[in-house]
Amino acid sequence: MPTRRGGGRIFGHGGLRFVLLSLIAEEASHGYELIKRIEDRLGGSYSPSPGTVYPTLTLLEEQGHLQADNTDAGGRKRYAITDAGKAFLEENRTVVDTMLARLNGGVDGAGPRGGRPPQVMRAIENLKLAMRMRLTREALTPEQAHAFAAVLDRAAQELEKI
Could you tell me if 131 and 117 are in contact, meaning their C-beta atoms sit under 8 angstroms apart? Predict the structure, then answer.
């Protein structure tokens, strides 16, 4: 049974399958990579056991939600999501979103982003990326720097009103 430090299940009965499918939908992965991605997203506070992950991957493959590529030289299978798996995720979107919120620490404070809804985290990451891309493209003129700062100041003021 997967537990986090301090005890207790983080995804509940059957929730891990939605997390695994979602992560594989983002990028085809080996079981070990999935374990590490979950652990990384939760800041090391939780790591699902291989004894839970691999049987879940096998079940999802048997259900037609995943397809395993041929094993690599190390004998590892790389899993990719199937069309049936994508449809399954969409049919269960409410549960999937709840599980992903837990993965991102948004429901019960399980991770480093505890209490933050996933849509807010996505927006923050989009803003950070946009700022980095613009600031690394070319040096800002003084006028552009003022405009850049004004956009950020307005955003901060709007957030304070919420």
Answer: no
| 148: CB partners within 8 A, 6+ apart | 134, 140
Question: For the CA atoms of 30, 85, 89, 109, what is the dihedral angle to 10 degrees?
Answer: -10
At 27 the pLDDT is 93
Distance of alpha carbon 97 from alpha carbon 93, whole angstroms: 6
The amino acid that residue 99 corresponds to is M
Residue 37: count of CB within 10 angstroms of its CB? 18
* Separation of alpha carbons 157 and 147, rounded Å: 15
Mean pLDDT of 86-111: 77
The answer to whether the CB of 49 falls within 8 A of the CB of 55 is no
